[in-house]
Automatic annotation (TrEMBL):
This is Outer membrane protein assembly factor BamE. Residues 158-182 are annotated as: Disordered. It holds the Pfam family BamE. Keywords: Cell outer membrane, Lipoprotein, Membrane, Palmitate, Signal. PROSITE patterns: PROKAR_LIPOPROTEIN. It comes from Herbaspirillum frisingense GSF30.
Length: 182
């Protein structure tokens, strides 16, 4: 009788161990390759038994750099001006003081991983050139990506969005009759 309970307990422990081991289904070969040409997006994770999915939060690491931010960069900008446009660099290397790296990684809860890298190079404390930054998303595309909404969709803050829009009236360009000095 005791061996039957021990066998059931071992079976339960084995099943729990198998379920705990399913936290990651990606092999090392599926990892994002290191490339500085722009944004890389890798695949989505599989679910357990086709329907069980553990909840996973989105994890953002590094500096998001948009297409608009890179468009503002031009040779001759000072370090302070570059820091104002792109933010504080994620990596500054004391052996390469003339190089700032802006790495970004967004691991979505569904297993999709987005990475990008932009490197800026200085010569005599002035911006010399930028590497990476091709195919970067715009700020609106990034917001759409992190909110899982459709491209071009506007966020609604209330249940009666149409009713709220119909109640808003534009300001009249003509002054009211009481304000004309009569």
């Amino acid at each position: 009788m005791k061996s039957r309970h021990q066998t059931a307990a071992i079976g339960v422990v084995a099943v729990l161990a198998l379920l705990a081991g399913c936290s990651s289904t990606k092999s090392p070969e599926q990892a994002a390759p290191t490339d500085t040409s722009g944004v890389k997006v890798t695949g989505k994770s599989n679910s357990l038994f086709g329907f069980l999915k553990p909840y996973r939060i989105d994890i953002q690491q590094g500096n998001f750099v948009s297409k608009e931010m890179v468009a503002q960069l031009r040779p001759g900008l000072t370090r302070d001006q570059v820091r104002f446009v792109l933010g504080t660099p994620l990596l500054t290397d004391m052996f390469h003081a003339n190089r700032w790296d802006y790495d970004f990684r967004l691991a979505k809860g569904n297993g999709e991983i987005m990475t990008s890298r932009v490197s800026v190079f200085f010569k005599d404390d002035l911006l010399d050139h930028v590497e990476g930054g091709e195919n970067l998303p715009t700020e609106s595309e990034y917001l759409t990506l992190i909110t899982d909404s459709k491209v071009g969709a506007k966020a609604s803050f209330g249940a009666d969005k149409d009713k709220a829009d119909s109640e808003v009236k534009p300001a009249s360009p003509v002054a009211p009759s009481s304000a004309t000095g009569k």
